[in-house]
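Side project, low priority. Logging it here so it doesn't get lost.
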Amino acid sequence: MSSLEDEPDQLDEQLTYCTQDLFLSTEYIEWRKALRSFSAGEWHLLTASLAIKNSPTGVFLEFGETIYSSLVFSYIEAPDYTESQMLMVQFTMPGSMWHCLVWHCPEHN
């Protein structure tokens, strides 16, 4: 049986699914509300940020240490932030081609 690390396309799909779930599942609402407590324009370790906000980390830990220890996110305000209140949240893993981009409005959790 092969692992997700041996199947890059499957790994990318699973990472994207789990990342998008951060913005859909009520389990992560406190993390979403607190996004702006992390410095804008800087990279933050995803699992550490989830733990700080008492949000579940298990789904990401299941990917294994090689992956969860390098999974990072950053956000910036949208160009029309004054009107839209939207943040562009980007997720990536250094050393891989995988990335995920989510437009998020913290006011509408």
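Brief comment: The beta strands are 44-45, 72-77, 87-92, 99-104.
Revisit when time allows.
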